[in-house]
Specification:
This protein has about 100 residues and is α/β, with parallel strands linked by helices. It has helices at about 20-25, 45-55, 70-80; strands spanning about 10, 30-35, 60-65, 90-95.
Amino acid sequence: MGNIITDIADVAHWERAGNVAEAARQGLKALWAKTGQGVNAPDESFSKFEDDAKSAGILFGAYHFGTNQHPGDAQADDCLRYADPHNMEAFASRELA
């Protein structure tokens, strides 16, 4: 098993974008950002969080907040419209609302 990272922030549009570079200097190791929810509901802050994490030199991962209103495959396809799992260290489909 690889290293376990404990200094990680889970972020989405409803959180004010802080200074990721400063947080990294203070010990933040990774950002885990929401790509969207359901279908056709992208998180408008996702790209900024991805850019900020990469600029700060920390790990970046993404998750999708699933709902029971759409089939899982449609939600996965929608998520992949916004996030490229090949460009990040972690990628997952997360919760069901």
